[in-house]
Amino acid sequence: MLIEVYSDGSATTADKPGGYAFVVCVEKVRVAEGSGHLPKATNNVAEITAAIAGLEYITTHDLPGVDETGQVILISDSKLVLGYADGSYQCKAMHLLPLMLKLRKLYRQLNATNRWVKGHSGDEFNELADQLAKSAREALNNTQQQNITQNYP
User: Fold this and answer.
1) Separation of alpha carbons 107 and 75, rounded Å
2) What single DSSP character describes residue 96?
3) pLDDT tens digits, residue range 19-53?
4) Closest Cα to residue 8, out of 144, 151, 127?
């Protein structure tokens, strides 16, 4: 089974709110989505947090097809996230190190691969993750709250 995790973050500067979101698809069908608000976050923090949240979702929910035969693909418009996940980028920003380590651990645990998608290029699920992340960033009363929607029993 093919399991795709689309992730996206939305933030501007470290002293302003950020948002993150993910969309999980099994065999090209959206089965779950989630988003959350970060009181203060850079765009890189929001992007990495989104990927972590999406991969964590897979490890903590009984999704159809998630077993040793499933192929997990992390999909992002952030080359930094994908490089951190697969180990091809070294983390030079100390404040990102704990997030990078968590991301890499989940990525390896799931034996995932990754795929880069150009942002704002019309990819349905990347666009959805982008919209969800932006909405979460703009939500003033959702501090540290994560919203999850599942589309399966």
Assistant:
1) 12
2) G
3) 999 999 999 999 999 999 999 999 999 999 999 99
4) 127
Q: 17 lies in which domain range?
A: 2-150
CA 123, chain centre distance (Å): 15
The token pair at 122 is 């019309």
Q: 49 vs 143, which has greater pLDDT?
A: 49
**What's phi and psi for 93, nearest 5 deg?**
-95, 110
Helix, strand, coil share of the chain (percent; to 5): 35, 30, 35
Number of structural domains, the chain? 1
Please tell me the pTM assigned to this model: 0.90
Residue 140: burial class (beta carbons within 10 Å; 0-12, 13-18, 19+): exposed
CATH of the domain at 102: 3.30.420.10
Dump pLDDT digits (tens) for 81-112.
999 999 999 999 999 999 999 999 999 999 99
End-to-end CA distance of the chain: 18
